[in-house]
Write a structure and sequence with these properties.
With 400 residues, the protein is of the alpha+beta class. The chain contains 14 helices and 7 strands. The chain starts with a helix and ends in a 9-residue tail after the last strand. One of its GO terms (biological process) is phosphorelay signal transduction system.
């Protein structure tokens, strides 16, 4: 039944209340001119109301049911001359159906949209006006207020029902995106714990051994980067936000966002700061999910990564490949910068600090230490890896 269920229940309540109202009017008028016929029409209305209350939700408002509803309602409306005197009808007395006549307009609007609701209202309004005109009412004095209200009811209800269906579809897509994101994240974790680590080991060991093994290691490094990119889930885009979708967030969750940014108000997705470092010789790989850090922490990590890549440009041969890998492991966010250069000679960092060259000591170690993180540098003739680790102080969306 979906989102239409509440609409059908509301229409059923409206029809029941309208039948009761029509019966009260009939009783107060003493049965109109023909009491037996009047109560027979009321029975037909009550029976059809009970039938449609059960049929609409289960039959999903098929065209045969909609047309039958319109025909039965129009028939009850046009039976007014059998119940009421000609003078009463021509004098503007409400027909036997009273407000019950609006049921099909509401049903058509919910089932087929505002145009169908308007069409149904037009047919019923035309039947009402023809009835009054055929009973001697002057054309110039025909009441149109009821027709206008009926038309507006069909259009408005149809429009609201259409908006509700669109919202339901957006919610369904959001749930699918969230489920797909969770599955890809699960696969990414499994791949990281097995395949990616093996490929990284092959790349490192192949470079250390040299010869044909070095070429095998290089290919393993390329496949590691490609695989990381494959399991990465893009961050939510502005287009999705405009459609009511919010990436991997559930349909009932909202994140506090800065206009044009990808995270909560005082948080920054570290991936957005690392991606600009990507180039023909630098591969940037990030996990499937956002890596939110406080703005200050994220920018310091990004600057440290930039300093590490600057060192690759300065101290390695032109065209030396480098890789930047970012991930969240429990309560820490780790970023490693790996290159395939000649490595850092023993004592080189200490000598550079003594000579006043503080590229590593301040731009990397100092930055990370100031934000409560750690730096680990591993170097050999096969290359250098600088691993930055900082507390994951904002690794999840804020939900309100």
């Amino acid at each position: 039944m979906g989102i239409e269920g509440p609409f059908w229940r509301a229409i059923a309540v409206f029809r029941i209340a309208s039948v009761v109202y029509a019966a009260i009017l009939l009783a107060r008028a003493g049965g109109y001119g023909h009491p037996v016929a009047g109560w027979l029409v009321i029975v037909v209305m009550a029976t059809w109301t009970a039938f449609t209350a059960a049929a609409y939700p289960s039959a999903r408002a098929s065209w045969p049911l909609l047309l039958a509803d319109l025909a039965v309602t129009a028939g009850c409306l046009l039976s007014a001359p059998l119940v009421q005197d000609r003078a009463a009808i021509s004098g503007g007395v409400m027909p036997i159906t009273a407000t019950w006549v609006a049921g099909p307009a509401l049903a058509w609007g919910v089932a087929r949209g505002r145009r169908a609701g308007a069409a149904s209202a037009a047919i019923l309004s035309a039947a009402d006006l023809w009835l009054r005109g055929s009973q001697g009412m002057n054309f110039a004095s025909l009441p149109v207020n009821g027709a206008v209200l009926l038309f507006l009811a069909g259009v408005v209800v149809g429009h609201v029902a259409q908006l509700a269906r669109e919202a339901e579809e957006l919610m369904r897509r959001a749930v699918q995106l969230e489920a797909a994101g969770r599955e890809r994240e699960r696969l990414a974790r499994g791949i990281h714990d097995s395949v990616l680590q093996v490929l990284a080991l092959v790349q490192r060991r192949g470079a250390e051994i040299g010869g044909e093994a070095a070429e095998l290691g290089r290919l393993a490094g390329e496949q590691e980067s490609a695989l990381r990119a494959l399991v990465q889930v893009p961050a939510p885009t502005d287009d999705l936000a405009e459609d009511g979708l919010t990436g991997q967030r559930g349909p009932r969750q909202r994140a506090l966002r800065v206009p044009g940014k990808g995270g909560p108000a005082d948080r920054v997705d570290l991936r957005d700061l690392l991606r600009p470092y990507g180039s023909a010789r630098v591969t940037v790989s990030a996990p499937a999910t956002p890596l939110f850090l406080s703005a200050g922490t994220a920018h310091e990590v990004g600057a440290a990564v930039g300093a590490a890549l600057d060192n690759v440009s300065k101290h390695c041969a032109e065209g030396t490949r480098a890789w930047v890998f970012a991930e969240q492991d429990g309560e820490a966010v780790t970023v490693s910068v790996r290159d395939e250069g000649p490595g850092i000679p023993d004592g080189r960092l200490e000598q550079a600090a003594a000579d006043g060259r503080m590229g590593v000591a301040r731009s990397i170690r100092g930055r990370i230490a100031d934000i409560g993180g750690t730096v680990e540098i591993t170097s050999s003739h096969a290359g250098t890896e600088i691993e930055l680790s900082v507390p994951a102080d904002a690794g999840r969306w804020w939900r309100v």
